[in-house]
Amino acid sequence: MAIRCHRRSSACLLAAALLAAVAPASAQAASRRFALFIANNDGGAGTHPLRYAKEDAEKVRNVLTRLGDLAEQDALLLYEQSADQVRGALARLEPRLRQAAESGQRPILFVFYSGHAKDGALRLGSSSLPLEELKTRMAATSAEVRIGLFDSCRSGATRTKGARKAPAFEVDSGLLQGVRGLVILASSAADEDSQESDELSGSFFSHHFASGLMGGADSSGDGKVSLAEAYAYAYSRTVADTAETAAGAQHPTFAYDLAGNGDVILTDFAARTEGVLLAADAPEGSWFVVDSRGAVAAEVSKSPGIERRIALGPGRYRIKRRLPDRLRVGELSVPAGQTVVLNDQMLRDAPFSDDPVKGAVTRRFQPESHFGMALGGGYQRFFEGPFPSTGLIGLELGLRGYLRENWLLGFDLAFGGGNASVLPGGQLPYRFSEWDLGVSIGREWPVGLLSPFLGARLAMIGLSRRFTGDPIPDQVYAAMTPGLLGGLQLRLSSHLTATARARLHYLFYNVDSRQSLGYLEGALLLGYEL
Amino acid sequence: MSLNYRRAIALVLALLPACGTWSDLDAQFLAAVPTKDDLTLSGPAETQSSPLTADISQRQDLLGTSRVYTDVVQQVSDVNKFIDALANGLDFIRKLPPSQRLADARLWGPYDDDKHPGLQIQIGIQRVSATEYHYAVQYRRKGAADFSTVIAGVFYGEKASHGMGNFQVDGRVGKSLGISQAQDAEAVELGYNMSDGLSTVGHLKAQYSAAALEYAYATKRDGSGEVSFTVTKDFVAGPLGDETLRVSAHWLDSQAGSASAEVSGGDLGTSKGTQQECWDESARQVYLSKNFDCSGASCTEGSPSACRLAPPTP
Fold first, then answer.
1. Using CA atoms, how far apart are residues A318 and A332, in angstroms rounded to an integer?
2. Could you report the predicted ipTM of this complex, rounded to two decimals?
3. pLDDT under 50 in chain B at which residues?
4. Given this model, what pLDDT does residue B51 score?
5. pLDDT for position A244
């Protein structure tokens, strides 16, 4: 049976639900699961760095190893690895898959990817792995069922025509042709950006997928979450959460051909007594479970009159419900092997400012071009020549992505000044002032929260001085100065940045003599991006 | 470096406009040239009395009714006028950037001299060492090839207000070019020393065709000072030549002071006229003593105890 879901199609949900209903879960006792979790924040040239790829992979991996009958040694995590390293890891799994099959177990291969995808390929730093090749490699394994989950930008269905970039890959365009027992899930449609959330400390899709695996997706209430249930839950929650974001709704897609294998049970917590039980009379709506790091460990959409289990591991958690005018918050501990019943009486009212979740702003994988302002101070020092060193304060306007992705265009204005003397010992003292007006162009290479950058700058520098103790007329100098710049920007939040920057400039001096001078500027800036 | 490479660099530099007057060397050159304020003497306040050195032939009451104080004021004023004339000639270098900058020299001009049509002026300063500068004010007639030096100066130190130096003015060249008048001095030398930063010590010698003046002065920043001058001139018509007038004066910052004067030589023969005088803060004479022209009048007025400063030795 092959089902292809198209974006924005309610039939997709229906089909998944039907699949879950009519396809009995395969016997799990004989299965042996292997998984490859691939995470890479860096998508190489032309991409903007992600922040939570690793967190997404670890989140899904932790749930599957805890609840999904996936042994730790069979769950490989590849972080910031190249395409060749992924190929190698897959090859290393094959003997174990074959051994499981030969021993009568039912091998299931789960490949999870969180990162960039572009032009039909996964982007792993500077390398790329075509999805078609990965599918072929997965199909060539001894696994009976192969599940690929790709949480990446523009990773889904057929894109519309136009001038936009090519889709990362198309899930429903014959991807499964000739391959049986293969499921491909993608976090977004082909012409959509997948979105990360600072509030969730991860991508919407992975977050909801993992939450669903912990019980949120158990629509049948049997204590098990099947692949179809997990997808249906992740789909509905992702679409709902992203509908109001600036990037627009994100629609997960999938292609599904289990070749008579029936649905796959991903997690089974029926026999586990550990976790949180949302009582049937608990208010409906979204319940957030926040871990000790301030990250959302699980999110459950509670329906009225239905009991819902969340298979959390032991630990202390904070609970949050968001009401139109306030929050309802509380705390609880989940002891090992025990279930804690959670109801609204355990919560108290709190203002929105007391939100236990760190951050609250969503952010896109690939932000569009934007601009920002930065204010900072620095120090300028000439290597030689008649000009004094000085402190500078400046204001800068930066345009990101207007020229090309990851290219910067900046305009800056700075002022400085102070007291100095022509001769040592304060002889011929003067007061001077300086202004700089510059335009720069550069490129950044974002890696996580950090963005190193290099560029070139052309500035007009003007200096003037007034002698304070001698009858010497005022002096001025102005020149165009070309230079190079480089630095490192740290993203403090979705809007705030801190930047350390150095500039090396050339200045042609021609009064006393013709001299080629150089000066160095160092600065620290605090920026706000819109 | 290949020629093409150099041309490429030159082209790039040409495309980078740079201009201005910011020059440490300019500042050092300018600081070496004293200003009018650096050199101006601060003497006692002027009064309306006629000076002692008025043409003696017109003053039959020589020293009898003299006002030494007034004469000192007049002499200081004359010196300052002379300094003004010198300094003003140099001052325009502070208004215009140098026309030429060489490694150890700066040149202003040549410019047409507005005050003397038909002449061109240039001023050059040369740095001989970090603390020695030579400069010259030169003139030429328009169309002439060579300049003639009218004022030459030397300065020692890092800045004029804390250094020492001297000028020489060649009045004969000035007169030949029409810059100086016939009655002006033929040669002037002005020396100064301000190296302690608290006082100005200097001398001025002026040689005229029929007279010679010599001044020595020391003024402090607080307003006190002293000056002595000698005028050699044929004050009294007669067969025995020039007489010599020597005056020494000193004063406090309050302007109260005293002076001694002596006239000798020439047609006065072996006789010598002396006079001592003291004045108070308002320039009012408080003591007078002289040895001549006392007939019908006392040779002493007031008491020496009224003097704030004892009269100096002439």
1. 6
2. 0.73
3. 1, 46-66
4. 38
5. 61
- Indicate the pLDDT class of residue A381, thresholds 50, 70 and 90: very high
Residue among B193, B245, B244, B238 nearest B220 (CA): B193
Mean of pLDDT values over A248-275: 72
A369 has a pLDDT exceeding 70:
no
Residue A105's closest CA among A15, A27, A49?
A: A27
Of B168, B170, B120, B124, residue with least CA distance to B146:
B120
Instruction: Specify the DSSP class assigned to residue A216.
Output: I
Those residues whose C-beta lies under 8 Å from the C-beta of residue A314, and which sit 6 or more positions away, are A274, A334, A335, A336
Cβ distance A508 to B16 less than 8 Å, yes or no, reads yes
For B164-187, write each residue's pLDDT tens digit: 888 888 888 988 988 887 777 888
Q: Which of residues 459-478 of A touch B (CB under 8 A)?
A: 463, 465, 467, 470-473, 475-478
HEC letters along B210-266: CEEEEEEEEEECCCCEEEEEEEEECCCCCCCCCEEEEEEEEECCCCCEEEEEEEECH
- The predicted pLDDT at position B140 comes to 94
Quote the minimal CA–CA distance from A401 to chain B in Å: 29
Contacts of A76 (CB under 8 A, 6+ apart): A35, A36, A37, A89, A93
Distance CA A196, CA A238 (A): 11
* A470 to B20: CB separation less than 8 angstroms, yes or no: no
Chain B residues with CB inside 8 Å of A509's CB? 18
